[in-house]
């Protein structure tokens, strides 16, 4: 079965600093991969997706992620954190018709 | 275009009571999903549907039933609520490969 591991349940960065949220997947074939963001008391919103085209994927709000098959990773980055980036972030993989989500990383941005 | 809506937004149940959560989408999507979200566990799939009249079990289906009588609606039922079902429930519809989520229903079972 597919699985997704997010390293670090909580990440704190200073405003303006690099954001790096880690995601590793287990799959025998290149999967479809996603990053979602969840703001407090809201549903999940798609940040970006990898669908076996370009390995560097750009998303909304200045986020991007790089698919690295050799490392089975799909880490999310943003060059400069903004206060509005504070939220919960979920990595997900799809196999067949089912999505599998990581346990989430809570991002805190320190002014 | 309302997207995915969920009814109700909040609910408190006593152990043993029953209830139905309604998910509606106006995007004509074939696929619909029900998840539960618990602290530290991410989202876990309860049931899903690949089209009107179809349902399938996900990762944590026990204690829940679903129905998809109309393409736009996906109902999640709890026949006899238990405290372990206290959670936030999210519905999603899918236009491959993406999912679109509703705002969630916060359910507390006492």
Q: How would you characterize this protein structure?
A:
The complex is a heterodimer of chains A (111) and B (110). Chain A is built from no helices and twelve strands. Chain A has 111 residues and is mainly beta. The model of chain A has no long low-confidence stretch (mean pLDDT 91). In chain A, β10 (87-95) and β11 (98-101) form a beta hairpin. With 110 residues, chain B is an all-beta fold. Chain B is built from no helices and eleven strands. In chain B, strands 2, 4, 5, 6, 9, 10 and 11 form a seven-stranded mixed β-sheet that branches. Chain B has a four-stranded antiparallel β-sheet with strand order 1-3-8-7, with no helix packed on it. Chain B is globular, with a radius of gyration of 13 Å. The model of chain B has no long low-confidence stretch (mean pLDDT 95).
Fraction of residues of chain B in helices?
under 10%
* Beta-strand share of residues of chain B: over 45%
Order of helices and strands of chain B: EEEEEEEEEEE
Please summarize the sheet with the most strands of chain B. 7 strands, mixed
Largest sheet of chain A: 6 strands, mixed
Low-confidence runs of chain A: none
Counting DSSP E segments of at least 2 residues, the number of strands of chain A comes to 12
Number of beta-strand segments of chain B? 11
Features:
heterodimer; A: 111 residues; six-stranded mixed β-sheet; four-stranded antiparallel β-sheet; globular; B: 110 residues; mainly beta; 11 strands; 0% helix
């Amino acid at each position: 079965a597919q699985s997704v591991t997010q390293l670090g349940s909580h990440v704190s960065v200073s405003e303006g600093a690099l954001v790096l949220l880690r995601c590793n997947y287990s799959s025998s074939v290149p999967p479809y991969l996603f990053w979602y963001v969840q703001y407090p008391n809201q549903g999940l919103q798609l940040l970006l997706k990898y669908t076996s085209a370009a390995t560097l994927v750009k998303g909304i709000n200045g986020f991007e992620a790089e698919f690295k098959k050799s490392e089975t990773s799909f880490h999310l980055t943003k060059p400069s954190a903004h206060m509005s980036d504070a939220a919960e972030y979920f990595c997900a993989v799809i196999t067949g018709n089912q999505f599998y989500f990581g346990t989430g990383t809570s991002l805190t941005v320190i002014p | 275009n309302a997207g995915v809506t969920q009814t109700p937004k909040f609910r408190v149940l006593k152990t043993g009571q029953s209830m139905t959560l309604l998910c509606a989408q106006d995007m004509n999507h074939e696929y619909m999903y029900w998840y539960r979200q618990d602290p530290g566990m991410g989202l876990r799939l309860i049931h899903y549907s690949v089209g009107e009249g179809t349902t399938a079990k996900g990762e944590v289906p026990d204690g829940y039933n679903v129905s998809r009588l109309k393409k736009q609606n996906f109902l999640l039922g709890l026949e006899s609520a238990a405290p372990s079902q206290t959670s936030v429930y999210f519905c999603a519809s899918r236009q491959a490969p993406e999912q679109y989520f509703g705002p969630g229903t916060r359910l507390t079972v006492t």
